[in-house]
Write a structure and sequence with these properties.
single chain, 510 residues, mainly beta, Immunoglobulin-like, Ferric Hydroxamate Uptake Protein, Chain A, domain 1, seven-stranded antiparallel β-sheet, 27 strands, 37% strand, elongated
Length: 510
Amino acid sequence: MRKTLAILVMVLSAAITYAQPKTLRGSITDEKGTPVPGVSVSVKNKPNLQAISNDGGVYEIKVTDAANDILVFTNVGFTTQEIKVSNRTSFDVKLQSSQTQLEDVIVVSALGINRKQKSLTYASQSIDTKTLTEARDVNFMSALSGKIAGLQVTGTGQPGGSVRITLRGDNSLSGTNQPLIVVDGVPIENSPGDAGNIDYGNAVANINPDDIESITVLKGPNGAALYGARAANGAILITLKKGKPGGDGTLGIDVNQNLQLYKITAFPEYQNIYGEGSNMRLAGSNVNNVNPANGGVNMGTSNQSWGAPMLGQPYNTYGGVPIAGGYAPQSSNVSDLYQGSLTNSSNISISKSDANSAFRLSYGFTKGNDVINNLNLINKHNLTLTASRNIGSKIKIETRIAYTNWNTKNRMIKNLDASNPLALYVYMARSTRLDGFLPYMDANGNSIATGQVNNTENPYWSIYANSNEDTRYALNGGITATVDLAPALKFRGKVVGDLANTENYVKKEL
């Protein structure tokens, strides 16, 4: 028994010793022996084990399996090297320069053709698409702001609202000034989704940003000449992710979870000395503004804040109920209407490829609200499937189909429409209390009037009694055949389809 126990202790000791991490040290130089700083040193398939070489090219990294771990050395301008540790505690690395990484940068040009950037005769610029999914917007086009020189993005600030894009300013007084949007070689319209005082957003916002592989902006008519007059203001080329043949048949799974919190942190400064009224009087110059039932003045008698100093005089709600504290400053009557909002975006994709075929299936879900309760309630579903197949060595077939189901409840009404809950805020006095709007409905189910405030509605009536809803269904896809006719000559044929339908209603209580 003692012998067995001793053997067991020895085995456990060996296992513990084996599991302990070891530290490797060394230096990194180029072909001339010059130290290379900033080299990324990582353990293959272990993303938590990484290090960077210092100014002297010296690195230090821990490994958990000194016998089998593989170190990966990467740096811009040098060929990536992989070296097995093989129980060593130190070794030096000499990196080989890679001219192709610096000179042969490939970009997507007109008609989706890949070309070397230095061969282009017009201005173009690409962006890092990872930034679209890190701090995302419901309309991913908003994320282009500040990332492309000369590109201006103007949005409504409303979740899911339209975005207007211009390149190098406006070029026309009458026509559209937006660049043409091209998705996988197919031009699409990006006109605003305004219908009266409701903004239903752009059609391009149907695209799931997790499905975008690259975005290239062609500036000016020269770069976009192949797309005709519609691209006179430039073009934005969007290439979607696809399964690419050439893999080893391994199934890949990608998951992206994004959670964003929005909160208004700055408001205009307001004076809080004089409240509702005119001519330095709460009741103005009309004694009939005084409620004979209780001697107070009802809120909404005036649409100005030129009344008397707020000293607690008798004051009533819009419904004529006396307010505790009376006519007093309401320093937070603007900020208290707002809340924090949350947008949750989830995406999962699976992909697989072998020597001659590949596929990618992606599903994304977005759920969000707005900084005013019960407004802009968004539920968006994206489902995308792509597949490709090499037929022999000369023919390649690619297919894609994407489905979008986007439901939005209670989009905010724009401008000074009476149904906009913020319309009253333009005229609301500094003495107005938010709880004075409640209850927003009387015993007969009618709205409590807001008095003479320019015919605007009770904001809570606009939020909870009025409503609108729209559901957008979009299905688009296509099939592309590419035939290699000669080393420098290809034939490409493409058939695409784009179907969209929107169901909506607007309900306004009288």
